[in-house]
Design brief:
The chain is α+β, with helices and mostly antiparallel strands. Helix content is about 35%, strand content about 30%.
Length: about 325
């Protein structure tokens, strides 16, 4: 097996594999949002057949390259066909994939590599052996195969009370159809929090990518004013919470929880298997997500800094002691 950047002639096969073995973030429709900055790589077997892939987002700083996840993209992959028939062979093939990625990315001549692996990749030993740093991150997922009553029962008392209070106070939740309102609420929220975010990429996702067949969002109205929104994208198997926002001048404590609850129920109506909150390491956000009673799922963040850059940083840190 070897890795190379896919050609135009590979793209149809790649996209079919991405839809079958990957997720929405691996599809060409999503990756095309990032144009020339995206690098799409394929796994090819001994017969030169494309069997999977992953992607990286290339940036430059002072003519020096670094690679990471594309904006609003939780992981780079990988996805692949694994025809192994025994558990040993399955594990062996997965380890081989991780080793190939580690060895390939080391040769990209980048000052920094930092990217997250798909939730299904739990064997990161090859990255450790190749001197990458590995960090653990977490998300929460809800199994949509159980009924709504059970999902609701799994919520924390605080989260249920937030939703009940919003309903009792007259907060109304509607499935969104106005993308301008969606963007306005997100930008208001980010402006208040002084958060740096790639607005151009978000606009591409909302206005160019999202449609009735891959996205949905719910807006909370209070006293006839839009006050909160939750935006999700999905493929045929799974829904992912991407971003939310609210109007700090017209807010209700339970509005955000209420819009997310409607997103969860809508994902279930679409016959999806799972709802992914896309995680957060920020304590307040993590606690909010935890209140929805999902399963805690670890995933891995991979990092490598060029030796000379790392040495320079070490010298700077020592000089500041």
């Amino acid at each position: 097996m070897y890795i190379k950047e896919i050609s135009d002639s590979d793209k149809a096969i790649y996209d079919n594999l991405a839809e079958k073995y990957g997720n929405v973030f691996n599809t060409l429709k999503w990756l095309k949002l990032y144009k020339d900055k995206i690098k799409i790589y394929g796994f090819f077997d001994e017969d030169n057949r494309l069997i999977g892939g992953f992607h990286l987002y290339e940036n430059k700083k002072y003519f020096l390259k670094y690679y990471n996840n594309p904006p609003f993209t939780p992981f780079i992959g990988p996805f692949f066909i694994n025809k192994s028939s025994t558990y040993f062979k399955i594990q062996n093939f997965q380890k081989k994939v991780s080793k190939k990625i580690a060895q390939f990315t080391k040769k990209l001549n980048a000052i920094i590599l930092f990217f997250s692996l798909d939730r299904t990749i739990i064997d990161v030993q090859p990255f450790i052996w190749e001197k990458f740093k590995v960090y653990i991150r977490y998300t929460y997922t809800i199994n949509l195969r159980i009924n709504n009553e059970k999902i609701w029962e799994n919520f924390s008392p605080e989260r249920r009370n937030d939703i009940r209070k919003a309903n009792n106070d007259g907060v109304k939740i509607f499935k969104g159809s106005d993308k301008n309102t969606l963007m306005e609420l997100i930008i208001k929220s980010l402006t208040r929090q002084n958060k740096a975010i790639d607005i151009k990429s978000l606009e591409k996702i909302v206005f160019k990518f999202s449609s009735e067949i891959n996205s949905f969002y719910f807006i909370a109205y209070y006293k006839e004013k839009p006050i909160s929104v939750s935006f999700c994208i999905h493929d045929k198997k799974k829904a992912f919470y991407v971003i939310g926002g609210y109007d700090s001048n017209n807010k209700h404590h339970g509005a955000g929880a209420s819009t997310l609850w409607e997103c969860i129920k809508h994902a279930k109506k679409l016959d999806l298997k799972e709802f992914d909150f896309d995680g957060s390491m920020i304590p307040n956000i993590e606690r909010f997500f935890r209140g929805f009673g999902g399963k805690l799922v670890p995933f891995y963040r991979i990092n490598r800094i060029n030796y000379f850059i790392n040495l320079a940083l070490s010298l700077v840190n020592k000089s500041n002691l």
